[in-house]
C-alpha cells in the first residue's frame, strides 16, 4: 500500500511539474487622458506632435503642428547636437472639421541623409531638439509592427514594448488614433506617439476609423491625409491612401482597403505599375500591408476583405509577395503560405495584427475547426517584430502584452520566395499578368 501511495505521489508530482500553465488574459484598460499642461504653457510656435516618415531615397519627412498660424515651416538638422549645418524648407496645411480648426500642420523633407546615422533636428527654429536615426542601407533591418493602435492603457503598454525593440521602421496597417470625428483625439494621439514617432520613421496606411464620415460631411480622410502625409507622390501614386517605399533591400507596398481597388480603379492600375518596377535582385523581399485581412479565421469581420482579395490577390501572387500584413480584426493570426484559399509553397504568409491597444477590445471568437492555412491565432494585445536578416531569411515574432511585460508567444523563420525558386518560376506569369490591360 505504501509503495502504491509513493507511486501515485510521484505521478502527480510529474504531472504538475510538466503541465503548461494556462494563459490568463489581463483585463481591459481605460482610454488614456493625455495631460496638455506642458503644451498650453509652451509658446504657441513650439512644435507639437512631431513624427517622421520615409520620403524617397535617403530622405525623411518631418511633420509637426503649431498653434501659431504664422510659424515658419522649416527644419534645421545635423549630426551633432545643437549644431545644424543643413536646413530644409517645408510646406503647411490646415483643415476645419465641423466646429474644430486644426493647428498649422507642417511637412518638411530633409536630406539626402546618410544611412544608419543619428541626426539632431529642430522644427521651425524654436522649441526642443529632436533626435532621429536613419535606417540601414543593407540587411539586417528590423520592422516593428502593430495595427489598430488607439490610445488606451494597452496602447501605452504596446508602445513601451516597441520602444524596447531595436527597430528601424514602424509599420502600422491602419486605425491610428480612433478619433472617430472627435478631432481633439487626433491631437491627443499625436502627443502620445511623439516620443517614438519623432525618432524612427512611422509608415502607416488608413483604416476604417480614419474615414470619419459624419452627417453631410463627406470629405473623407481629411484629418488623416492632413496629419500623416506618406510618400505617395514619391512612389508615383495619386493618393495618400496607397503608396510604396524601399528600404535596405525590402520593397514595401501600402495599399488602401478604403480606396477603390477593383480592376478598373486607379489603385489597381498603380499597383500593377509598381509591381512591374520591383527588382528582386535589388530588393529580394516584397511586403504588402493594408487594413482589412484576406485570410481571417476570427468570427469578427468575416468576409470583409473578400472583394479586394478577389481583385488583387492574383497580382500579389504573380509578383511572389513574401508577406502580407493586415489589421482590423482585434486579435493576432499567422497563416502558412497560402493562395486562393489553399496551401501553396509560392503563396504569401498572411499576418493579422490588429492588436495594438484599441478601446473596442479584443475579438475572442474563432471559427472551428481551424482552417488548414491558419498556423497560430490568439486574441491578445501585442506587437510584432520582423527582423530581415539577409536576402534569404527573416525572423518573425509576435509578443503579447502579458500585463506590462512583452512575452514572445509566436515566432517563425521565413525563407524568401526569391531564394526558393518561386520568383523565377512565375516570371512569365508575372509578365503576362502585369501586361494584361
From TrEMBL:
Residues 47-132 form the Purple acid phosphatase N-terminal domain. Its cofactor is Fe cation; Zn(2+). One of its GO terms (molecular function) is metal ion binding. It comes from the Eukaryota. Residues 142-332 form the Calcineurin-like phosphoesterase domain. It catalyses: a phosphate monoester + H2O = an alcohol + phosphate. SUPFAM superfamilies: Metallo-dependent phosphatases, Purple acid phosphatase, N-terminal domain. Pfam families: Metallophos, Metallophos_C, Pur_ac_phosph_N. Residues 1-21 form the signal peptide. The keyword Zinc applies. InterPro entries: Calcineurin-like_PHP (IPR004843), Metallo-depent_PP-like (IPR029052), MPP_PAP (IPR041792), PAPs-like (IPR039331), PAPs_C (IPR025733), PAPs_N (IPR015914), Purple_acid_Pase-like_N (IPR008963). Keywords: Glycoprotein, Hydrolase, Signal, Zinc. Residues 348-404 form the Purple acid phosphatase C-terminal domain. Its EC number is 3.1.3.2. The keyword Signal applies. Belongs to the metallophosphoesterase superfamily. Purple acid phosphatase family. This is Purple acid phosphatase.
Amino acid at each position: 500500500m505504501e509503495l502504491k501511495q509513493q507511486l501515485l505521489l510521484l505521478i502527480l508530482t510529474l504531472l504538475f511539474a510538466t503541465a503548461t500553465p494556462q494563459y490568463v488574459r489581463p483585463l481591459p484598460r481605460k482610454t488614456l487622458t493625455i495631460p496638455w499642461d506642458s503644451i498650453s504653457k509652451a509658446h504657441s510656435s513650439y512644435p507639437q506632435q512631431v513624427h517622421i516618415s520615409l520620403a524617397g531615397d535617403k530622405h525623411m519627412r518631418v511633420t509637426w503642428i503649431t498653434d501659431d498660424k504664422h510659424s515658419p515651416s522649416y527644419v534645421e538638422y545635423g549630426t551633432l547636437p545643437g549644431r545644424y549645418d543643413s536646413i530644409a524648407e517645408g510646406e503647411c496645411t490646415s483643415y476645419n472639421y465641423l466646429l474644430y480648426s486644426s493647428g498649422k500642420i507642417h511637412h518638411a523633407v530633409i536630406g539626402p541623409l546618410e544611412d544608419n546615422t543619428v541626426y539632431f533636428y529642430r522644427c521651425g527654429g524654436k522649441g526642443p531638439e529632436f533626435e532621429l536615426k536613419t535606417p540601414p542601407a543593407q540587411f539586417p533591418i528590423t520592422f516593428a509592427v502593430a495595427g489598430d493602435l488607439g490610445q488606451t492603457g494597452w496602447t501605452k503598454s504596446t508602445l513601451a514594448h516597441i520602444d524596447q525593440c531595436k527597430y528601424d521602421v514602424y509599420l502600422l496597417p491602419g486605425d491610428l488614433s480612433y478619433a472617430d470625428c472627435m478631432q481633439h483625439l487626433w491631437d491627443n494621439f499625436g502627443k502620445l506617439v511623439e516620443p517614438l514617432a519623432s525618432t524612427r520613421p512611422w509608415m502607416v496606411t488608413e483604416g476604417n476609423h480614419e474615414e470619419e464620415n459624419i452627417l453631410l460631411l463627406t470629405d473623407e480622410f481629411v484629418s488623416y491625409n492632413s496629419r500623416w502625409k506618406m510618400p505617395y507622390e514619391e512612389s508615383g501614386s495619386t493618393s495618400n491612401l496607397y503608396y510604396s517605399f524601399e528600404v535596405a533591400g525590402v520593397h514595401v507596398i501600402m495599399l488602401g482597403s478604403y480606396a477603390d481597388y477593383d480592376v478598373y480603379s486607379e489603385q489597381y492600375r498603380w499597383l500593377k505599375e509598381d509591381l512591374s518596377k520591383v527588382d528582386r535582385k535589388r530588393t529580394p523581399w516584397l511586403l504588402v500591408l493594408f487594413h482589412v485581412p484576406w485570410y481571417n479565421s476570427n468570427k469578427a469581420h468575416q468576409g470583409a476583405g473578400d472583394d479586394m482579395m478577389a481583385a488583387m490577390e492574383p497580382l500579389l501572387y504573380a509578383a511572389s509577395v513574401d508577406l502580407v500584413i493586415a489589421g482590423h480584426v482585434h486579435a493576432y493570426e499567422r497563416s502558412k503560405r497560402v493562395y486562393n484559399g489553399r496551401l501553396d509553397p509560392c503563396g504569401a504568409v498572411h499576418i493579422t495584427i490588429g492588436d495594438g491597444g484599441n478601446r473596442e477590445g479584443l475579438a475572442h471568437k474563432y471559427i472551428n475547426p481551424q482552417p488548414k492555412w491558419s498556423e497560430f491565432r490568439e486574441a491578445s494585445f501585442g506587437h510584432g517584430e520582423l527582423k530581415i536578416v539577409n536576402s534569404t531569411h527573416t525572423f518573425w515574432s509576435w509578443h503579447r502584452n502579458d500585463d506590462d511585460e512583452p512575452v514572445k508567444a509566436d515566432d517563425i523563420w521565413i525563407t524568401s520566395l526569391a531564394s526558393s525558386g518561386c520568383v523565377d518560376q512565375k516570371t512569365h506569369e508575372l509578365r503576362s499578368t502585369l501586361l494584361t490591360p
